[in-house]
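ARCHIVE CARD
CATEGORY: sequence design from structure
SOURCE FIELD: tokenized fold
FIELD CONTENT:
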């Protein structure tokens, strides 16, 4: 007999089979539960259980500490349902999510924007629609069931053809990929990519997208974490929703050197053209040739210096897991940010899941 999962306060409901995975059932039902890695590693799917019986599967302690588990928090991506359940998640919307599809995509271009960052344009099939929310990601489906996730860097599929009125013109998505030496997928991209190569992808995935509110927003990115943030900026710029257009945004983008801010000119020009957007680049190790006179240090610390009180803000953070974890902790504990107003995608890789905090027991 299937059980019912109810999410408060949105009152959204979906069914889950006995012993079934809660997050998967929610995604299948089109309920916009927050999530990131789907692997018990990032903590994005963490929410409070109000009632019901849940068995929590293997996860990393940094995603859900034993103390938080004792307080009734669960990770929906690795929790199974054993009764009707009521959960609290203020990040759930009362509208559905775009349909998740598998499809082939063809490489249009791969342009190096920094020594270790590639901007990919991938053509979508002309026969299928692909809808997503700005900020979501796709998975590349590789051999032997392996997957690698990459955030979409445009707000919606863009037309290749300059003639926007041509409904049949091919459309593309943009990705920003950082090379991880020794990495299965990025070694291929940087050393063995073929012209017009075909990949299989699945998406759109993830719960990283703008939530309706009138609060000012902090966009926080490290490295290629800028990709989904660029999509969010494009969404605001092209939105016909007047309330969204008037929300002040401060973009903090951190990297080691100036070259690592691989779309600096785009971010600078966009902030000049849009008075509601301020851009604060932050370098942790500027080189001598950078001749840098801007902000230095850790990017999330720059946010705290400028905004010691973040209550009444929404924060959207993306990039290195260490940055996302530190920002969540510091903003909530030291700057009065409500944890319901912190939205993030941590770019966890195999290295993070193999070498970081130990797995919490079943
Ligand atoms: C939701 C999400 C969105 C993401 N979006 C982006 C994005 O937009 N842009 C981006 O650049 N990245 C993104 N990532 C990260 C991306 O998915 C990959 O993890 C990353 O590109 C590395 O993939 P790879 O196959 O090259 O490396 P992998 O094969 O996964 O290896 C990663 C690193 O770990 C090392 N390694 C491999 N096996 C082990 C092991 N057993 N023990 C220790 N170390 C090991 C490798 O040498 C390599 O350096 C995202 C991740 C997530 C979860
Ligand atoms: S821990 Fe559940 S989605 Fe990452």
């Amino acid at each position: 007999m299937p059980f019912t999962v109810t999410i408060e306060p949105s009152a959204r409901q979906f069914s889950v089979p006995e012993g079934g995975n809660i997050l998967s059932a929610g995604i299948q039902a089109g309920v916009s539960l927050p999530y990131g890695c789907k692997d018990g590693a990032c903590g994005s799917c963490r929410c409070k259980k109000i009632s019901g019986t849940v068995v929590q599967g293997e996860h990393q302690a940094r995603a859900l500490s034993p103390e938080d588990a004792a307080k009734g928090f669960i990770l929906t991506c690795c929790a199974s349902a054993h009764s009707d359940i009521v959960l609290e998640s203020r990040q759930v919307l009362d509208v559905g999510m775009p349909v998740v599809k598998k499809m082939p995509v063809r490489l249009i271009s791969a342009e190096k924007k920094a020594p270790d960052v590639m901007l990919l344009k991938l053509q979508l099939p002309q026969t299928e629609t692909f809808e997503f929310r700005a900020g979501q990601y796709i998975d590349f489906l590789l051999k032997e069931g392996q997957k690698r996730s990459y955030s979409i860097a445009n707000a919606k599929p863009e037309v290749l053809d300059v003639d926007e009125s041509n409904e049949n013109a091919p459309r593309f998505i943009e990705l920003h990929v950082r090379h991880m030496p020794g990495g299965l997928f990025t070694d291929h991209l940087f050393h063995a990519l073929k012209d017009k190569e075909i990949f299989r992808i699945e998406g759109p995935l993830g719960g990283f997208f703008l939530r309706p509110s009138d609060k000012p927003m902090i966009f926080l990115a490290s490295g290629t974490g800028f990709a989904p943030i660029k999509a969010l900026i494009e969404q605001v710029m092209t939105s016909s929703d007047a309330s969204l257009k008037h929300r002040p945004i401060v973009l903090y983008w951190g990297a080691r050197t100036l070259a690592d801010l691989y779309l600096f000119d785009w971010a600078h020009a966009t902030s000049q053209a849009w008075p509601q957007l301020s851009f604060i680049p932050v370098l942790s190790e500027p080189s001598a040739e950078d001749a840098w006179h801007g902000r230095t240090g850790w990017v999330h610390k720059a946010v705290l210096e400028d905004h010691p009180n973040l209550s009444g803000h929404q924060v959207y953070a993306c990039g290195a897991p260490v940055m996302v974890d530190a920002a969540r902790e510091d903003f909530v504990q030291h700057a009065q940010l409500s944890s319901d107003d912190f939205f993030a995608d941590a770019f966890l890789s195999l290295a993070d899941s193999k070498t970081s905090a130990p797995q919490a027991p079943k």
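CARD ANNOTATION: The radius of gyration is 20 Å. The domain at 3-88 is CATH 3.10.20.30 (Ubiquitin-like (UB roll)).
SHELF: design records, drawer C
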